[in-house]
Amino acid sequence: MRKSNQQSIRAVIKRLLKNQKLEGRLQELDVLNNCEEVLGKNLMKYISNLSFREGILVIKMKSAVVRNELSYQKNEILKKINQKTAKEIVKEIILK
Q1: For residue 84, is it within any domain?
Q2: What residues form DSSP beta bridges with 92?
Q3: Mean pLDDT of the chain
Q4: Cα(60)–Cα(48) distance, rounded to whole angstroms?
Q5: Is 81 a domain residue?
């Protein structure tokens, strides 16, 4: 008789997430999605690119005026994003 090769989806996903590269990339995607939620649709119109690597969130802006306004709110944005991810993943925000 053959041994069953069936496993629960939960067990398979847990094993996959133990891979550090995959887990790190999933956290990056989570930060970027939360950033879009925190900033909102109106501000996302002025953002040309979002990137996140090694704890640094880089936001490239289309407008210098909006970038200047966001620079005053960097700490608040950082706190909100980290609250949504339930971890302190974002260490710094750079506005370009």
Answers
A1: yes
A2: 56
A3: 88
A4: 6
A5: yes
